[in-house]
Structures are given as C-alpha cells and as structure tokens.
Amino acid sequence: xxxxxxxxxQQLEMSRAAFAxxxxxxxxxxxxxxxxxxxxxxKWGIGRLRLLVNDDLRSRFDAQAEKFDAAIQSGQTDLxxxxxxxxxxxxxxxxxxxxxxxxxxxxxxxWEVKLPGSDKIVAVVRTTSEAHMVATPDRETWTxxxxxxxxDHASSIIADIKRTFPGAEITAxxxxxxxxxxxxxxxxxxxxxx
Length: 194
Description:
Elements: H1 9-17, H2 22-44, H3 55-74, H4 77-100, E1 111-114, E2 121-125, H5 128-134, E3 140-143, H6 144-152, H7 156-164
Parallel strand pairs: 2-3
Antiparallel strand pairs: 1-2
Helix pairs in contact: 2-4, 2-5, 3-4
C-alpha cells in the first residue's frame, strides 16, 4: 500500500489557481462565512446573538473572529480556509448555546402599507435588526427610527396641523413645503404653477 503524502501549501495554491484565481477562491471562502453570519443575524438580530451566550463562549467567539479577520488580511488561502471553517463552527456554537439556554430568536412585527402615489407596498418595522430580518430586494423596509427622522425634518406646517388638530389624519400632501426656518412670504404669495 502506497502512503499518501499531503500536498504542500504551494501545491495547493497551484491546484486552486488552475480553477480560479486566488482572489476568487478567497472571496468564495469569505462569502460562505458571510452567508452563515447573515443567516444568524436574520434569525437572532444584528449583534444580539453573541450577547445571549455566556461570557466564556462570547470571548471564544470574539477570538475566532479576530483570527478570521487576520487570515483575511494575510491573503493566505490555506490559512483563510482553516479560519473560515472555525468561524462557521463559532456561529453554530452561539446558535446552539442560545437555543439550549432557552433564548428566543428575534420575531419581527411587520406592518405593510401601500404608498398612495405609487401603489408600492412598503414594510414598517420597529428596529434595524427586524428590518434586516424581513427586508428583501423587492420590498422596501423602513424602521420607526427612520420614520422619526422624516417626521423630525418634515415641514413645520404638518407638525402645526397635528398639534392644532389632535388625531388629524394626513391624507395627502400637495405642493412644496417651506423649510421650518423660512416663514411664508405673504407679500409675494404663492408661486404661479406655469
């Protein structure tokens, strides 16, 4: 029986180069880790999963993430491959530990509304984590904090109407609103629309 000698790093690199340039192979490796990370973030929320496990596991996860980042920076495909597999296992360990501890995955509450001007359906969720959980390329998703920014920068006329007539519903907005710090010039009047 002939003993098999493992290939050297240079032989591995040359064999991979025959199929794809090293940059493509490295991107393929990192894409695999990114896919698992995005699946875990979709399930548990962005940055939330590592906080649901004990300090020891969180510390080991962070150490593996540092090794993976260093492997990316090194440009060494074989090192990157090893650390990528470690990173995948690290994500799976967090998922398993959080589930075993009785932690609940993120559950998004989604409100959908049809935009009156275009009939496009948009989704409204509470948090950025929920937005990442439900967003798709064909569904525009807004968070409450984004809507708060829109309200904060909306015309003062709209805010005045809402304060003056509590419970009033805005059904349409026509024309251009004046910026909040520019009062309407009554001597000039409205712009002529033609």
